[in-house]
Amino acid sequence: MSDNKPVIVLVRPQLGENIGKAARAMLNFGLTEMRLVSPRDGWPNPSAGPAAAGADVVLERAQVFANLAEAVADCAHVYATTVRKRGVTKPVLTPEEACHDVHGQTGRSAFVFGPERSGLETDDVALARAIITVPINPEFGSLNLAQAVILCAYEWSKGADLVQPTVEDLLPPAPQDELEGMIAQFEALLEPRGYFRPPSRAAATRRTLRNMLTKPGWNHLEVRTMRGVLSALERRIEAESPEEG
């Protein structure tokens, strides 16, 4: 797998909260290098930390540049993210296509994002080698900054060696004899209470009950739990029944 992590470049970001949210999006998918081009409210920004929700390492390492050319000077592959082509003739890629290229290329890569209100200017896009865009509702093309960052970060992560969230180990299916014991317990509880009447339907009713109880693929713990429920009901019924004298 490629370890060529792209740089995330935010051009003239307006709100510290949005910078923090972008950092949070980055770190969720293993990206840590953020570069800021002329942030409107300066840097560092006290509003960024709370919005980052723990992604402090990204904010602490963030670098500030006076212009985009300086911010991407060491990057061989620069991708401008925009929903509009801005009249510039460039290859147009989806985030998935761009990230596939990043994993297969040598040299540093940068994903460039514009200001929240207006997006990248034509001169910003002109610095890029390619444009990243996504199919979007033509009547409402309005992704916020963190959403745009997370689209690219996620697609990059699909080709990286990130650890998958822990999945709870599934217990093996219960052996047949445990299922038979549970079914027998059901029948013993239901039989004296007339559940299998009339006699002409008893076999079919038992068969339906068996099919229902074997369908879920019970594991050992589930069978034990259900039998515990049945035992509790049995004890309650016996306690409430009048004593024979």
From TrEMBL:
<keyword id="KW-0949">S-adenosyl-L-methionine</keyword>
<dbReference type="InterPro" id="IPR001537">
    <property type="entry name" value="SpoU_MeTrfase"/>
</dbReference>
<keyword id="KW-0808">Transferase</keyword>
<dbReference type="GO" id="GO:0002128">
    <property type="term" value="P:tRNA nucleoside ribose methylation"/>
</dbReference>
<protein>
    <submittedName>
        <fullName>RNA methyltransferase</fullName>
    </submittedName>
</protein>
<dbReference type="InterPro" id="IPR029026">
    <property type="entry name" value="tRNA_m1G_MTases_N"/>
</dbReference>
<dbReference type="InterPro" id="IPR029028">
    <property type="entry name" value="Alpha/beta_knot_MTases"/>
</dbReference>
<dbReference type="Pfam" id="PF00588">
    <property type="entry name" value="SpoU_methylase"/>
</dbReference>
<feature type="domain" description="tRNA/rRNA methyltransferase SpoU type">
    <location>
        <begin position="7"/>
        <end position="154"/>
    </location>
</feature>
<keyword id="KW-0489">Methyltransferase</keyword>
<dbReference type="GO" id="GO:0003723">
    <property type="term" value="F:RNA binding"/>
</dbReference>
<dbReference type="GO" id="GO:0005829">
    <property type="term" value="C:cytosol"/>
</dbReference>
<dbReference type="InterPro" id="IPR004384">
    <property type="entry name" value="RNA_MeTrfase_TrmJ/LasT"/>
</dbReference>
<comment type="similarity">
    <text>Belongs to the class IV-like SAM-binding methyltransferase superfamily. RNA methyltransferase TrmH family.</text>
</comment>
<dbReference type="GO" id="GO:0008173">
    <property type="term" value="F:RNA methyltransferase activity"/>
</dbReference>
